[in-house]
Amino acid sequence: MSDDFILDTDDLTRRMDGAIANLRVEFASLRTGRASASILEPIMVDAYGSQTPINQVGTVNVPESRMVTVNVWDKGLVSKVEKAIRESGLGINPQLNGTIIMLPIPELNEERRTQLTKVAGTYAENGRVSIRNVRRDGMDQVKKAKNDGMSEDDQKFWEGAVQEMTNDYIKRVDDQLEIKQAEIMQV
Predict the structure, then answer these.
(1) Which of 9, 16, 27, 79 is deepest in the core (most CB within 10 A)?
(2) Residue 8 has what DSSP assignment?
(3) Is this prediction's pTM over 0.70?
(4) CA distances from 7 to 80, 129, 131, 146, 148 (A)
(5) Residue of 156, 39, 60, 150 whose CA lies nearest to 102
(6) If you classify domain 34-104 with CATH, what class do you get?
(7) Which of 64, 66, 57, 62 lies closest to 99 in space, CA to CA?
(8) What distances in angstroms separate CA 175 from CA 1, 63, 138, 172, 179, one per listed residue?
(9) Between 48 and 91, residue with greater pLDDT
């Protein structure tokens, strides 16, 4: 195995791309003052004994620029959906109207904008952690190959390649965070 070790960089790239894609979804859920159905995407509802995305228990609509509605299909789940929205940290107070949950989107004040930039920072840190976990897996593969007889030069080469890839993806996370924070703070 000594000279024929080739790290599966495609797998590492795919997994790091997945972390970036997940970050984009999380950033899309952060509102910037306008109503968007995507703000509810990360919210999971305890329905039928499992965690279910909110868009699988009701219809999410945006009837106007400052209102999101959720038309819950099962009357028994209305309170669970409302509870999930309240506990999501979005800072939106749901209003019930039968099976329709109305979510008026308040104007963002300076304090709320600052809170949202901190939430964006948390999402970005979670993305960085995911990328570092992929790096750790890659480094573990290299160490295993080293134990199986890989030369020290090859080990240094592959470790450098994994670290370079990690640095590139961490920079992408930082760039996206900077853009999202600027978008949130824009009045």
Answers:
(1) 16
(2) -
(3) no
(4) 46, 21, 17, 12, 14
(5) 60
(6) alpha beta
(7) 57
(8) 39, 33, 24, 5, 6
(9) 48
What is the mean predicted confidence (pLDDT) over 94-119? 86
What gap in Å lies between CA 37 and CA 15, rounded to an integer?
27
Q: How far apart are CA 11 and CA 165, in angstroms?
A: 12
Token couple for 124:
């970005």
The reported pLDDT for the residue numbered 108 is: 75
CATH dotted code for 9-26+109-185: 1.10.132.20
Q: Which residue has the tokens 């789940």?
A: 77
Domain positions in the chain are 9-26+109-185, 34-104
Query: Which residues is 52 bridged to in the sheet?
Result: 45
Query: 158-162 long-range CB contacts below 8 Å, 24 or more apart?
Result: 158/5, 158/7, 161/7, 161/9, 162/7, 162/12, 162/135, 162/138
